[in-house]
């Protein structure tokens, strides 16, 4: 079996590198390290030693300009992990490298600089200050840097406009809906001009339709700005929609990570199989993941885009199983897709014992 901790996506410069990261909660975490490294799991450590294993040998590369999604059920360690990236939580062991430099050796001044200028955070509960206006909340990072209001107003208003809140600057948070409040949180993160956006369950408190709108907004902004985003979620549909690189945690360890389409087609653990079992594969899987790569030849029923989902191809085929399509990317042919390949992809792969 492949190394579950190995980062599989080779594209993009590494911005943050997490290496052999452990977090143990309790009175004497260092004394527990030998047991954990010897294979003691989360439940056994709690039962026999009275300590909680938060993170267990995490190795993840976060690449510049990409969305890295860290997902898992409650208690999997995902929120603990994201708080190590800006050292809101101190690890028991390991490294967190920012542009190649281990932040665990930084003093308080450098950490403040990291949090103010390089990493912004969008929270599940919005974390807006109720006594400040929408504009003042959006400009909070700039204000804490000592920038005068007359200088930061234009920047804050620019990002409020960009997230669909133009004209709301003088309102207060309680006058906005939940979705609008989260837009303020995103505008605040963007106005800080930080390289990295940390988003901890940022959309999970929202109603489903608003949540979908926020996901679409994030993808739209990302297509334009190419931020380095670390997004925490417990929702697989959200993870598959947003992620360039997906990391799945269970009991504080990485079960599998890689390109989301690959994980969906090649789950390497029964836990992952259970996660993906009820996914609408036709809606999620893309042509690029199941096509035969190479120069197309022969006769075709038509052209399709490499990023079309399989549902749209099935619709175009009108139920026929003998259709054969030429796959295009940026106006150039890159592969071939036949209907039997789609049918095989729609059947979940069962992990062999």
Lay out the secondary structure.
Layout: E1 14-25, H1 29-37, H2 42-49, E2 52-63, E3 67-71, H3 78-82, E4 93-98, E5 101-102, H4 108-118, E6 119-122, H5 134-138, H6 140-144, H7 149-162, H8 178-191, E7 196-200, H9 208-225, E8 228-233, H10 236-242, E9 245-250, E10 253-258, H11 260-265, H12 270-276, H13 281-284, H14 287-290, E11 292-293, E12 302-305, H15 310-317, E13 324-329, E14 332-338, H16 339-346
Parallel strand pairs: 3-8, 3-9, 6-7, 7-8, 12-13
Antiparallel strand pairs: 1-2, 1-4, 4-5, 9-10, 11-14, 13-14
Largest sheet report: 6 strands, mixed
Name the helix and strand elements from N-terminus to C-terminus, one letter apiece. Answer: EHHEEHEEHEHHHHEHEHEEHHHHEEHEEH
How many beta-strand runs?
Answer: 14
Into which percent range does the helicity of residues fall?
A: 25-40%
Quick overview of this protein structure:
By secondary structure, the protein is an alpha/beta fold. It is 38% helix and 24% strand.
Descriptive overview:
With 353 residues, this protein is an alpha/beta fold. The chain has 16 helices and 14 strands. The protein has helices spanning 29-37, 42-49, 78-82, 108-118, 134-138, 140-144, 149-162, 178-191, 208-225, 236-242, 260-265, 270-276, 281-284, 287-290, 310-317, 339-346, and strands at residues 14-25, 52-63, 67-71, 93-98, 101-102, 119-122, 196-200, 228-233, 245-250, 253-258, 292-293, 302-305, 324-329, 332-338. The chain has a six-stranded mixed sheet. Strands 2-1-4-5 form a four-stranded antiparallel sheet. A four-stranded mixed sheet has the order 11-14-13-12. Mean pLDDT is 89; it is low at 1-10.
């Amino acid at each position: 079996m492949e190394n579950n901790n190995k980062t599989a996506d080779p594209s993009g410069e590494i911005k943050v590198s997490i290496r052999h990261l452990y977090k143990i909660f309790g009175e004497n975490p260092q004394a527990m390290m030998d047991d954990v490294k010897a294979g003691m799991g989360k439940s056994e450590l709690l039962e026999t030693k009275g300590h909680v294993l938060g993170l267990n040998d995490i190795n993840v590369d976060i690449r510049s300009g990409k969305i890295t999604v860290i997902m898992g059920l409650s208690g999997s360690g995902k929120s603990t992990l994201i708080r190590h990236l800006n050292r809101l939580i101190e690890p028991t062991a390991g490294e967190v490298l920012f542009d190649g430099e281990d932040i665990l050796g930084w003093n308080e001044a450098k950490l403040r600089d990291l949090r103010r200028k390089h990493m912004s955070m969008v929270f599940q509960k919005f974390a807006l200050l109720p006594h400040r206006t929408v504009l003042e909340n959006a400009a909070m990072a700039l204000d804490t840097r000592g920038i005068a209001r007359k200088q930061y107003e234009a920047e804050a208003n620019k990002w409020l406009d960009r997230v669909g809140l133009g004209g709301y600057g003088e309102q207060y948070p309680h006058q906005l809906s939940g979705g609008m409040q989260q837009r303020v949180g995103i505008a605040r993160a963007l106005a800080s001009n930080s390289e990295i956006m940390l988003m901890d369950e940022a959309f999970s408190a929202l109603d489903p339709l608003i949540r979908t709108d926020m996901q679409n907004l994030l993808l739209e902004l990302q297509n334009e700005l190419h931020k380095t985003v670390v997004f925490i979620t417990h929702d697989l549909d959200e993870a598959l929609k947003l992620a360039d690189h997906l990391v799945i945690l269970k009991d504080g360890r990485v079960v599998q990570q890689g390109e989301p389409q690959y994980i969906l087609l090649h789950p390497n653990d029964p836990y992952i199989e259970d996660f993906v079992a009820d996914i609408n594969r036709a809606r999620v899987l893309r042509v690029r993941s199941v096509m035969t790569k190479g120069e197309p030849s022969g006769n075709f029923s038509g052209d399709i885009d490499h990023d079309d989902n399989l549902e749209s191809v099935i619709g175009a085929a009108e139920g026929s199983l003998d259709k054969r399509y030429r796959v295009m990317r940026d106006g150039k042919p890159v592969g071939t897709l036949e209907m039997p390949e789609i049918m095989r992809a729609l059947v979940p792969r069962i992990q062999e014992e």
